[in-house]
């Protein structure tokens, strides 16, 4: 177990070193795309506030437009990083703009993986736990909390397992459902590495919260600037590098089964 953790730690260190090198070499390009995400998010929020009283239809239309634009820029960022990792330093703008099919598959993957699948998990748990009501009538009041608690324990790892589906859409040109299955297969045996990566970024945010709580305002502001202009862009680069590293060791098929890769 200790040897396994050491190997995972070294692997995570390699991911961060590669990601750090890529970000520092292409910092302004990555930061520019990241700032576009920030501007789009804030501009859409401000615009929605001003037009919400004029037309509900217009508000919905603008909401859809900005959602597509925001995630389109996010996919552009991912695609740009993937091109850099593939040693294509002279990246053309036309080659990193996601196609309509890629954007459609991305939203299809989000709907299927992040919305429908968690709902199906909750529904399945509710059906499994429902007969328990006949054993104890008091459980009728406790059952919703029990189902939601168990569901949360199952849903969080599931969402982590499918987190790499956008990269399959951009890198392999696969469909929504297939990208989810490939991500599920790719992360099999790699959850410890993924959790270690999340822990590093989580510690940065916890440190900022701690400094704010302790009223170390100057240190908190400094760390906030570091998080905004370096750590958050680094997250996207780390995800792309982790995807490429795991793909290099991937020995599964191109059409994996979900049931075969649960554990």
Keywords, please?
mainly alpha, globular, 80% helix, 263 residues
Provide the β-strand percentage band: under 5%
Q: Give the strand tally.
A: 0
Distance between the termini: 17 Å
In this structure, how is the largest beta sheet organized? none
Q: Please estimate the helix content.
A: over 70%
> Over the alpha carbons, how many angstroms does the gyration radius reach?
21 Å
- SS-derived structural category: mainly alpha
Number of individual domains: 1
Regions with little confidence, pLDDT below 50 for 5+ residues: none
Number of helices: 10
Q: Roughly what is the average pLDDT, rounded to an integer?
A: 85
| Succession of helices and strands | HHHHHHHHHH
Shape: globular
Question: How is the secondary structure organized here?
Answer:
Blueprint: H1 2-25, H2 27-51, H3 56-85, H4 93-96, H5 100-129, H6 139-161, H7 165-172, H8 176-186, H9 191-213, H10 217-249
Helix pairs in contact: 1-9, 1-10, 2-3, 3-7, 3-10, 5-6, 5-7, 5-8, 7-8, 9-10
